[in-house]
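Format notes (please read before filing issues)

Several people have asked whether sequences and structure tokens are stored in separate files. They are not. Every record keeps both together, in the order shown below: the sequence lines, then the token lines. Line labels are part of the format and must not be stripped during preprocessing.
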Amino acid sequence: MIESKTRRAGKFVVAALVIFFGVVIFIPFLFMFSSSMRTPAEAYKLPPAILPERIMLDNYITLFQSDIPFLQMFLNSGIVTGSVIIGRLFVGCLAAYATAKINFKGRNVVFVLFLLSMMLPIQATIIPTYIVMSRLHLVNTLWALIIPGLFDAFSIFLLRQSMATIPNAIIESAKIDGASHFRICWQIMVPMVKSTLVTLVVLSFNGVWNDYFAPYIYLSDWDKMTVPLGVVAMKGYMGSGNPSVVLAGVSIAVLPILIVFLLGQRYIVEGLTSSAVKG
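Then the structure lines:
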């Protein structure tokens, strides 16, 4: 009886802490959204108002009517993010299957090299990558963001560890039926690691959509830039831009991330736990 009460009290404390920290995390998003529907003077009001006082869409209209082509930037971000995710999953599935289920000489060495590449920050490889993109005449194009993003060592690692948990007997049975490695990978392995794929979609979407460094290096024309560059440009020189318009841009930029996360959140924990280190 005492143990039951203690367990209930523990669950109540955990639930209360989760709700508390959830509210703390949610307040900045609510303040951002409410400030995007205020005038600049009201945005700096002290104490700050958390809840929106009225529905004011003038800042959103100004955002899309400004000299900065924010709508085109939004479309560019969608093209880059969608292309990178599709290519990354395609490359990741093939590399993960090869290193997890195909026995070839140097398989573990290749996988270790993949892991070692995770330790290199993008700043360490940006110069040689820029030179390659320049010689291919891809600088100031969306391809300069898409092609380098197709290889992602973390995606390969997560998929490889997830595929490693699948019994080899399934692979052998498929081989007996005459299935090739390519068919085994896409028709057997990929459906069995669906939760890991969804997890990678959510994580990759967040990383690529919010990327500021690579677009800042490769892009120079307004109509080629992505959303993070547009939000920074809205701030103006020395932060002289309209803060309410900037927050309207941030609100729109965050919206796709929230939608993708809400759609895939139930797969995230399952995908990460199913990829526990093995072998």
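For reference, the curators noted about this record: The chain has 14 helices and no strands. The mean pLDDT is 84.
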